[in-house]
């Protein structure tokens, strides 16, 4: 039993939710509501929180809803020496996170961490923590959509497509409803199963998902495919994007002939296995173009293309624009 459980009336956590522009509302509210519900069940405010952003005042989420914060970066820096200093500094990320990972934000994150304060990130906020230099050799989680670019940008971070990760005093989650699971895990650590079960009943959720639970739907549900052999082949393809397997190698792995695989894919996927493999490699390349600053030639290599020219040709055929055009359009959106 934890110290918090044996002396729960005295136990307190003070959380700062630091909101980046365009943060995702579902991750933020899931985290806050878990704490609010814990306080209600306990009958006292074991968890307190305040909202902060770079300049203080109001800030808009990615859905356009504006939230009023209490403190700015400078005010949070002053509070580090006060009794109201946080025990957990939780960054709430969302879309265009690379645009908002400013020097002032990263400086505050490093300062909080140096003072022994736990650091957390919701949704894409692991990007900010990594950019601040705090995730080298650390396990972390980020939304699956941002995973390829994050891996290329921060190769020293030990990133996983898990719902959440806790490594020492750094907490990261993939966003969405995974924020609820991470906060329930924290409450479990503080107060045990009974309180968490009562919160789950109140919030109409049947369980706390494990950190290692998958983010995305299983392939069977995501693709609407029931054939186990086709699913096994697709999993093999997705695990080998940078060095694509030949159809003969795939056939050896799954114990089918090339002709059988061709027929299966035509029937189940409406295209050849080679075409499907190409499309998922190009999809990964598109994520890297949009979420990283890697040169096009490096993206081509990372996605299994022998040359930048061949990559560009295939990309244009699928997306009706060149990789350079794709990236230029993304930059225009970030500037807007």
UniProtKB/TrEMBL annotation:
One of its GO terms (molecular function) is sequence-specific DNA binding. Residues 231-329 form the HTH araC/xylS-type domain. It comes from the Bacteria. SUPFAM superfamilies: Class I glutamine amidotransferase-like (SSF52317), Homeodomain-like (SSF46689). Pfam families: DJ-1_PfpI (PF01965), HTH_18 (PF12833). The chain crosses the membrane at residues 15-35, 113-135. Keywords: DNA-binding, Membrane, Transcription, Transcription regulation, Transmembrane, Transmembrane helix. The keyword Transcription regulation applies. The keyword Transcription applies. This is AraC family transcriptional regulator. It comes from Ahrensia marina.
């Amino acid at each position: 039993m934890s110290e918090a459980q044996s002396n729960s009336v005295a136990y307190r956590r003070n959380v700062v939710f630091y909101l980046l522009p365009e943060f995702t509302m579902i991750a933020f509210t899931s985290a806050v509501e878990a704490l609010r519900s814990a306080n209600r069940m306990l009958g006292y405010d074991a968890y307190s929180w305040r909202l902060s952003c770079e300049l203080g005042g109001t800030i808009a989420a990615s859905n356009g809803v504006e939230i009023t914060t209490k403190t700015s970066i400078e005010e949070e820096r002053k509070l580090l020496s006060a009794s109201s200093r946080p025990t957990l500094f939780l960054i709430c990320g969302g879309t265009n996170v690379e645009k908002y990972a400013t020097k002032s934000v990263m400086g505050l994150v490093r300062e909080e961490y140096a003072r022994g304060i736990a650091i957390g990130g919701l949704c894409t906020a692991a990007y900010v923590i990594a950019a601040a230099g705090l995730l080298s050799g650390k396990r972390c989680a980020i939304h699956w959509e941002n995973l390829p670019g994050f891996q290329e940008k921060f190769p020293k971070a030990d990133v996983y497509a898990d719902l959440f990760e806790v490594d020492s005093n750094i907490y990261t989650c993939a966003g969405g409803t995974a924020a609820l699971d991470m906060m329930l895990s924290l409450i479990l650590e503080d107060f045990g199963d009974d309180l968490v079960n009562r919160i789950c009943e109140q919030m109409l959720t049947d369980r706390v998902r494990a950190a290692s639970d998958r983010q995305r739907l299983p392939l069977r549900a995501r693709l609407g495919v029931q054939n186990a052999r086709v699913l096994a082949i697709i999993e093999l393809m997705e695990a080998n994007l940078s060095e694509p397997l030949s159809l003969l190698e795939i056939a050896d792995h799954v114990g089918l002939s090339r002709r059988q695989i061709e027929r299966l894919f035509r029937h189940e996927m409406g295209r050849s296995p080679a075409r499907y493999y190409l499309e998922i490699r190009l999809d990964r390349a598109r994520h890297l173009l949009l979420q990283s600053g890697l040169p096009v030639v490096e993206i081509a290599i990372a996605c299994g293309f022998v040359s930048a020219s061949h990559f560009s040709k295939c990309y244009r055929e699928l997306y009706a624009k060149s990789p350079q055009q794709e990236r230029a359009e993304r930059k225009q959106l970030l500037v807007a």
